[in-house]
Design a protein that fits this description.
Elements lengths: L1 H16 L20 H14 L3 H15 L8 E2 L2 E2 L1 H20 L3 H17 L4 H18 L6 H18 L4 E2 L5 E2 L22 H17 L3
Antiparallel strand pairs: 1-2, 3-4
Helix pairs in contact: 2-7, 3-4, 3-6, 5-8, 6-7
Length: 225
């Protein structure tokens, strides 16, 4: 009788620890916190390394061809009665630099803050989400055309995800920017402050965004990012 009880206790105890439950198997590539796979991240960084030495030329080619299709955008660089060529040229370079910073950024909080601040700056200059989405898509099309011999599905998917993130964040109506002020992605009732060419600051205060990221982590985490 005692032996049967002992055997029963051992059996019940062993059933708790053996056999072990097989963990859930996740099929497919593993994605990081921003939704990029390892191969997509690698392809984007390799492409950026090829773009970086020629970023001024590539930036101008993309931006000026974009303005040919959306000619009204040139009015954003008019200062009084004259066209501010310096702001126009620098914006083309800053635009592609900003894209490169997004590719290199690993912190999802800083990544979101960068896009939010970019959205806020452009919304104050009456540049909507559709225009920024078209400009980002123009850059993607240009990169895939220039590097068609070394392109890959991972690069195409990574670039598409970048454009998608631009469009998704732009569609948010109310966002808290890096300076804890409300940002409207598609419209702003206030007139633009200062010179309309303020939109050239796409990647301005990037260092400030990094410094403020630590303070914004807790607030952003509460929002569910």
């Amino acid at each position: 009788m005692m032996s049967e009880e002992i055997i029963g206790e051992k059996t019940s105890l062993s059933s708790l620890i053996y056999p072990k439950r097989i963990p859930n198997i996740k099929f497919g590539p593993i994605k990081d916190e921003m939704g990029f796979t390892l191969s997509e991240r690698l392809a984007l960084r390799q492409a950026w390394n090829l773009i970086r030495p020629f970023k001024r030329r590539y930036g101008q080619d993309v931006f000026y061809s974009f303005l040919n299709d959306y000619y009204w955008g040139i009015t954003k660089f008019v200062n009084g009665a004259e066209l501010n060529l310096k702001a126009l040229h620098s914006h083309a370079l800053r635009f592609i630099n900003f894209f490169g910073l997004l590719i290199e950024e690993k912190d999802p909080v800083v990544f979101q803050l960068m896009i939010n601040e970019n959205n806020h700056t452009h919304s104050r200059c009456k540049v909507g989400s559709v225009s920024i989405g078209h400009l980002a898509q123009a850059l993607v099309d240009y990169v895939l055309k220039v590097f068609h011999k070394v392109s890959s599905p991972s690069l195409e998917q990574g670039l598409d995800k970048l454009v998608e993130k631009f469009q998704n964040y732009q569609d948010h109506q109310s966002i808290t920017s890096a300076y804890n002020r409300p940002s409207k992605a598609n419209s702003d009732a206030r007139p633009p402050r200062g010179n309309p060419v303020e939109a050239q600051g796409m990647n301005r205060n990037y260092i400030g965004l990094r410094n403020s990221a630590a303070d914004a982590v807790s607030a952003t985490a509460i929002s569910g990012f």
